[in-house]
Amino acid sequence: MALFNRKNNNAPSTTATVAPAVDPALAALTGDYTIDPAHSSIGFTVRHAMVTNVRGTFGEHEGSLKLDGSDPANSTASIDVRIASIDTGIADRDGHLVSGDFFDAEKFPLMTFRSTHAEQLGGDKYRVTGDLTIKDVTRPLSIDLEFNGSATDVYGNERVGFEGGADILRSDWGLTWNAALETGGVMVSDKVKLNFDISAIKAAVPQA
């Protein structure tokens, strides 16, 4: 089910292009959604000491989606993540990550993403591109996502779900702290995988 723009590479170039009929199921998803932090996860995976992975999550985040089923190219996403909510399972490590060596959470409390473009890659797979801001650095980021579907939960909330991720180089956002290992290599890899598992609730339509 296409949520974003679908490219038609087979349309004749010598005749007028006829707009495809709107999928009723897709059109029904049109609306504003709020990300449900209790049923969503935003996290990361990074190589530690060249031999293993450390995984962490950000426990506090909020965001919104705007889905337009009739004109999916108008769909947007916005996410704010509170850096101080980082959790890798070790308090001392978390304290180091929020310090000036890494995120400097006291000075830069939020990591933000604002979408600028979305496209369908095929089937239920999509790529959302936007601006990721960490500390005082804003750079473009593309996130590959899979649409997991829509459902009405036991409380009557209309939900949609997405999951996916993106690879970044943390040094591109000024996160450059490291330590050399005696055996060669470094303590923390530059490459970081961001992970997203999103459940969003559709806003109720005001009654006339």
Verbal overview:
5% of the residues lie in helices and 49% in strands. It is mainly beta. The protein has an 8-stranded antiparallel barrel. The longest helix is centred in the middle third of the chain and has 7 residues, at 91-97. It starts with 23 loop residues before the first helix and ends in a 6-residue tail after the last strand. The relative contact order is 0.20.
**Outline, from the CA principal axes?**
elongated
Helix/strand-derived class?
mainly beta
Distance between the termini: 30 Å
Helix content: under 10%
Topology:
Blueprint: H1 24-27, E1 31-35, E2 41-48, E3 52-58, E4 61-67, E5 76-82, E6 86-87, H2 91-97, E7 110-122, E8 125-134, E9 137-152, E10 158-169, E11 188-202
Antiparallel strand pairs: 1-4, 1-11, 2-3, 2-11, 3-6, 4-5, 5-7, 7-8, 8-9, 9-10, 10-11
